[in-house]
Description:
This protein is of the alpha/beta class. The protein has a single domain (15-137), classed as Glutaredoxin (3-Layer(aba) Sandwich), CATH 3.40.30.10. It has 5 helices and 7 strands, in the order βββαβαβαββαα. The strands form 2 sheets. It has a 5-stranded mixed β-sheet with strand order 5-4-3-6-7, covered by helices on one side. Strands 1-2 form a two-stranded antiparallel sheet. A hairpin with a 5-residue loop joins β6 (100-104) and β7 (110-115). The radius of gyration is 15 Å and the shape is globular. It starts with a strand and ends with a helix.
Amino acid sequence: xxxxxxxxxxxxxxxxxxxxxxxxxxxxxxxxxxxxxxxxxxxxxxxxxxxxxxxxxxxxxxxxxxxxxxxxxxxxxxxxxxxxxxxxxxxxxxxxxxxxxxxxxxxxxxxxxxxxxxxxxxxxxxxxxxxxxxxxxxxxxxxx
Length: 144
């Protein structure tokens, strides 16, 4: 896949915790979880975490408009081989519906798979990410 104009592989993210989210602009639950994914990206970025979206969209213009209109700040890629809202990249992971998300640990192993909508900025999810990334920097001063 290509991110920011350069060829990228998931292995390029080794050493980071990756939230690999398969989604589509035509998917209501995907649209609903976009603000939470933006918040999660802000929350985990300073601790070597990254949200990476792979969109099952055939129309580049619709995809780009969505990113702009929804202020998407996480890295995302539109699978150009998508047909009938099915992304071959997503299918290679065994994904049959969107949204579907894989949380991949720093060693490149799948730590968790989440099928369907998730409230990514909920206290429970942020606590989960704290546990796999270490405490957020904002809280470190509280321990001194």
